[in-house]
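Hi again,

Forgot to attach this to my earlier email, sorry! This is the prediction with zinc ion bound. I've pasted everything inline since the attachment limit keeps bouncing my files.
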Amino acid sequence: MSATSELRERIPASLRREILDDVCAYCGHPFATEVDHVVPLSRGGTYDRDNLVAACKRCNAEKLDFTPEEWQTWRAERGAAWPPMSPWDAWARLDLTEAEKDAVLAAHADRSPAGAAVLDAMSAYATAAHAGLPTLAAEAALHAAVANLTGETS
Ligand SMILES: [Zn+2]
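Structure tokens for the complex follow:
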């Protein structure tokens, strides 16, 4: 039995929905899509409600079989921030003008290649920020994609 089907079996849909109503327990990402065992099953964790939290894809993929303490140490050894930075914190740190912010938000509804490029650049920036990697190049790419979207040449 795969881990995923086992997870579905052990966590009733109603409880799963209740957990996923929360933001990511680790970075605060508003769109948590995965249920994480705080203490991993492989480390003696259980399916008890207090061992289950909502997690975003990025956090869950990085945490793997770490306990939160081990994960924090692992990140610290790599110079990565704790807690991990959510896309929205990354967004808040960006030096975007109001017009640029409007353009990025509009890009969510815009299926044009320029809009998709902005979202890709935003995602790349958030991934770098989340990992604690340098973000200057990603930020420059985002500004360029936004400028392309808004038709500005500055
Ligand atoms: Zn997260």
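Residues 95 and 139 are 9 Å apart (CA to CA). The chain has eight helices and two strands.

That should be everything now.

G.
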